[in-house]
């Protein structure tokens, strides 16, 4: 019997863990599937498009051939003008004229493009050319951006919980260290003995009702009991909670014997998990300086790793690139030679965007508090002072 009950408890615990993790895994999995479907779609549409030479491309070739024929050995006088013409002509060239669409819109290239779309980064070096691709890009962003923000909000709750708990534990440890330094050994021992005596006096060995407790006390001590009613109420409630624990276990056994009730209970818990999305972010209260330090360390780690497979980037350029990416600015001035390697860094991008989002949220809260203080201060200054007239 004991083994079967342990098995049932183990199964129920595993089910609780599964249904607790299920909403988070569902969001992340849906985003991954959405990115892969978009990569297949854009690689098929933009990769298989026919290359059509436009009128601008033909004019570019004509001007280039004209400048090539005008070259001569004696270019000392017209060298500056010639360089300026070449520079102006190359500025009119488009990147798509010299790139094969199948090479640019491979599966990994399309997947990289989809990640830049729903993360709202948009570097600008990869963009759809066909009319169908442009329409599908708008439709893809219309559903992908809310899904991405949902994943960010959900992961933000987890990250906010971790940050708040670690920060609170750090504060508790700091207060304990300060208390141990300020408190001497003899005084602390006396305080602990007094606390233990006070607790031993207020222990209730048997579950009693309020009337039984009042009747058992002598008449001379009833005035003191009035001041201890709060402690008595708390102890009686604790006793009642201990007595009701076996009833909860019996109800769990009933749910295990009736699977329909168990399914209804688990479904209600899953729905509650969906309703709690974004609640932990509202409760988060850590110093903004700590978040700035976390962002600096987080970007520095990536800036040290990224130049290993991107030879055109050093530490400073990689730091700039990561900051522009995580803040979703995405100028596109720094291009990646191997974007498929950076796709394996996508988890880093999502977590980093979440850290930056939390920092912006904390900064927003601090600004609101600052504005309230400024407005209240200005209102107090403008309030007319009360004049006291003599009677």
Short précis:
Belongs to the two pore domain potassium channel (TC 1.A.1.8) family. The chain is an all-alpha fold.
Structure description:
The structure is a single chain. The protein contains 16 helices and no strands. The protein is mainly alpha-helical. It has a domain of 189 residues: Helix Hairpins (Orthogonal Bundle). About 4% of the residues have low confidence.
Q: What's the pLDDT, averaged over the residues?
A: 76
- Report the top-level CATH class of the domain at 106-174 and 265-384: Mainly Alpha
The best one-word shape is elongated
Annotation, overall tally of beta strands: 0
- Give the distance, in angstroms, between the N- and C-terminal Cα atoms: 90 Å
CATH architecture of the domain at 106-174 and 265-384: Orthogonal Bundle
CATH topology of the domain at 106-174 and 265-384: Helix Hairpins
The biggest sheet amounts to: none
Q: How would you spell out the order of helices and strands?
A: HHHHHHHHHHHHHHHH
Report the structural category.
Answer: mainly alpha
Radius of gyration: 34 Å
Helix content: over 70%
InterPro entries: 2pore_dom_K_chnl, K_chnl_dom
Transmembrane segments: 21-45, 105-123, 135-153, 286-306, 318-336, 342-363
Membrane topology: Multi-pass membrane protein
Family: Belongs to the two pore domain potassium channel (TC 1.A.1.8) family.
Ordered list of secondary-structure elements with their pairings:
Layout: H1 2-47, H2 55-69, H3 79-91, H4 101-104, H5 107-118, H6 131-182, H7 185-201, H8 210-216, H9 222-227, H10 229-257, H11 259-275, H12 279-283, H13 288-305, H14 315-326, H15 339-343, H16 346-382
């Amino acid at each position: 019997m004991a083994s079967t009950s342990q098995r049932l408890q183990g199964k129920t615990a595993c089910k609780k863990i599964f249904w607790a993790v299920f909403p988070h895994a569902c969001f992340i999995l849906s985003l991954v599937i959405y990115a892969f479907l978009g990569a297949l779609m854009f690689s098929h549409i933009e990769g298989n498009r026919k290359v059509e030479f436009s009128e601008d491309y033909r004019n570019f070739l004509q001007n280039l051939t004209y400048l090539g024929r005008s070259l001569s050995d004696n270019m000392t006088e017209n060298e500056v003008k010639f360089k300026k013409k070449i520079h102006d002509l190359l500025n009119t060239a488009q990147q798509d004229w010299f790139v094969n669409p199948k090479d640019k819109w491979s599966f990994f290239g399309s997947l990289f493009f989809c990640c830049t779309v729903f993360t709202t980064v948009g570097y600008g070096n990869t963009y759809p050319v066909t009319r169908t691709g442009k329409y599908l890009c708008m439709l893809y962003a219309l559903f992908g951006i809310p899904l991405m923000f949902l994943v960010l909000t959900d992961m933000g709750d987890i990250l906010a919980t971790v940050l708040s708990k670690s920060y609170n534990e750090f504060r508790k440890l700091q207060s304990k260290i300060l208390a141990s330094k300020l408190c001497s050994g003899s005084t602390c021992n006396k305080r602990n003995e007094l606390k233990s005596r006070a607790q031993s006096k207020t222990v209730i060995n048997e579950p009693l009702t309020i009337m039984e407790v009042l009747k058992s006390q002598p008449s001379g001590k009833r005035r003191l009991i009035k001041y201890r009613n709060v402690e008595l109420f708390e102890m009686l409630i604790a006793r009642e909670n201990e007595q009701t624990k076996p009833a909860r276990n019996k109800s769990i056994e009933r749910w295990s014997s009736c699977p329909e009730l168990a399914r209804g209970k688990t479904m209600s818990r899953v729905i509650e998990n969906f309703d709690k999305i974004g609640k932990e972010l509202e409760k988060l209260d850590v110093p903004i300086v700590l978040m700035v330090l976390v962002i600096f360390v987080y970007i520095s780690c990536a800036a040290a790793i990224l130049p290993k497979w991107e030879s055109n980037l050093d530490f400073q350029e990689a730091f700039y690139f990561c900051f522009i990416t995580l803040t979703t600015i995405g100028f596109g001035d720094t291009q990646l030679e191997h974007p498929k390697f950076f796709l394996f860094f996508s988890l880093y991008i999502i977590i980093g965007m979440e850290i930056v989002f939390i920092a912006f949220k904390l900064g927003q809260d601090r600004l609101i508090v600052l504005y309230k203080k400024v407005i209240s201060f200005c209102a107090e200054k403008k309030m007319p002072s009360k004049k006291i007239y003599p009677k």
